Amino acid sequence: MIDKGQRRSSPPLQGRGRGWGLSVAEIDRLHDYARSMRNTPTAPEQRLWGRLRASQRGGFKFRRQARIGRFIADFLCPAKGLIVEIDGETHVDAGADARRDAALAAAGHHVVRITNDDVMHNIEGVLEMLLTTLSALPDRYDSPRPNPSPEGEGLLSEPAC
């Protein structure tokens, strides 16, 4: 599936907010990988998603296996910038996780890591902690957007009669 905003003829490292300096091929690869992970979730991911989907927790909307730059987050609340990572046996490199979390924090996200055991055996505690965290975080989109033309293009032209 091709994103309507994606131009295949664009330079290999197009900027303009599309992907942290990623090529179109790399963005497509990450998108396909995220889709395959959505289609084959782990048991803890399924369990947590069943409780987060459809804005069930305080009205906060979540996405699962969301691509953020060069990373794929297990769950993302875009309105608050909260990333929820479920750590299991595959998350054994604490240094790599710390570097990833730092890069995501630099992009304005807050990362919360939860273990598989917590999701499977203490789901209510996990949900309460997420709701508390979400309530404490500021809204990401509460400030007004800049004008499309901050230089004032078009403001000085006379209206056509």
Describe the secondary-structure layout.
Layout: H1 24-39, H2 43-52, E1 63-68, E2 71-77, E3 82-87, H3 94-106, E4 110-115, H4 116-121, H5 123-136
Parallel strand pairs: 3-4
Antiparallel strand pairs: 1-2, 2-3
Notes on the protein architecture:
The protein has a domain at 42-136: VSR Endonuclease (Endonuclease, Chain A), CATH 3.40.960.10. Helix content is 37%, strand content 16%. The protein has five helices and four strands. The protein has helices at residues 24-39, 43-52, 94-106, 116-121, 123-136; strands spanning 63-68, 71-77, 82-87, 110-115. A four-stranded mixed sheet has the order 1-2-3-4, with helices on both faces. Strand 3 (82-87), helix 3 and strand 4 form a beta-alpha-beta unit. The N and C termini lie far apart (44 Å).
Quick synopsis:
The chain is of the alpha+beta class.
- Unreliable stretches (pLDDT < 50, length at least 5) are 10-16
Largest sheet: 4 strands, mixed
CATH class designation of the domain at 42-136: Alpha Beta
By oligomeric state, this entry counts as: single chain
Beginning-to-end CA distance, first to last residue:
44 Å
Give the key terms.
alpha+beta, Endonuclease, Chain A, 5 helices, 37% helix
